[in-house]
């Protein structure tokens, strides 16, 4: 019998953990994701037997995540030389040149399309690049064309960028790894809380964080990168944790640690203090599990 310790996880070994379980850009981005954020209350009772997170995915996010063609947003574009464009702007076909040692240049490279555009077709606003965010968690702002800016703006708020638990990003980026731990807590809490609408009231347009899949918008990743989203979600987690701590209905959904037999319910979402047996899935205090073998498994040996 082996234990799955949900707290003793290093940045170098995130797979074991996930296997079990700048400036404001609001003025630049219209509320394009609003239709994907509201879950009508009646749907929580319509699908009996399904966890709230699965209902949320099926009713709100499945269509956009699974049907939208986002390959060009998640994969680096081919890199072209200016001569391969016949020294013409990729958009308006105006003659362009990169000058002599950049002197007299009248064009620039769009990091999103990998093509050269004239100065008139280049945007003065620099943007984070989706594929760079997924490739190396690089959320710096790069030069883009006006066409690219428009494309990125339209999808900026939509959770179409998925980071799988096996992503190498998690092995080297502590900021992202720690946020995914927090997101996992929110997901598990959402599935057990007495009234999922309490979570929806707080998270509002961030309900994609309640899904089991790690699907983010470019806005999410940018705010994880600068730390602002982590602070907000940590605050929400504290509020929801306090509700569960005093709510009789939520306490009934907890578990009693059969090692110490303390009659204070523990919950699977409290992954910093709780672990469970990978054989029978019984939940225990982490400290208790480190000192004694799973009594449930011992009973049936």
Summarize the structure.
Helices cover 40% and strands 8% of the residues. The chain is mainly α and 301 residues long. The chain folds into two domains: 3-68 and 161-252, no CATH class; 73-155, Zinc/RING finger domain, C3HC4 (zinc finger) (Herpes Virus-1), CATH 3.30.40.10.
Written account of the structure:
The protein is 40% helix and 8% strand. With 301 residues, the protein is mostly helical. The protein folds into two domains: 3-68 and 161-252, no CATH class; 73-155, Herpes Virus-1.
Q: What keywords describe this structure?
A:
single chain; 301 residues; Herpes Virus-1; two-stranded antiparallel ribbon; elongated; disordered N terminus; phosphatidylinositol phosphate binding; Rubicon Homology domain-containing protein; Autophagy_HostDef_Reg; RH_dom
H/I helix tally: 14
Number of strands: 9
Average residue-wise pLDDT: 80
Placed side by side, the strands forming the largest sheet appear as: 1-8-9
Largest sheet: 3 strands, antiparallel
Query: In percent, how much strand structure appears in the residues?
Result: 5-15%
Distance between the termini: 10 Å
The class by helix and strand makeup works out as mainly alpha
Cα gyration radius (Å) = 24 Å
Unreliable stretches: 1-47
Total count of domains: 2
Globally, the shape reads elongated
Q: What percent of the residues sit in helical stretches (DSSP H or I)?
A: 25-40%
Succession of helices and strands: EHHHHEEEHEHEHHHEHHHEEHH
Question: Secondary-structure blueprint of this entry?
Answer:
Layout: E1 3-4, H1 14-19, H2 43-46, H3 52-67, H4 71-74, E2 107-110, E3 115-118, E4 127-128, H5 130-136, E5 141-142, H6 146-155, E6 161-162, H7 169-172, H8 174-192, H9 197-203, E7 215-216, H10 218-225, H11 228-246, H12 248-252, E8 274-277, E9 283-285, H13 286-291, H14 295-299
Antiparallel strand pairs: 1-8, 2-3, 4-5, 6-7, 8-9
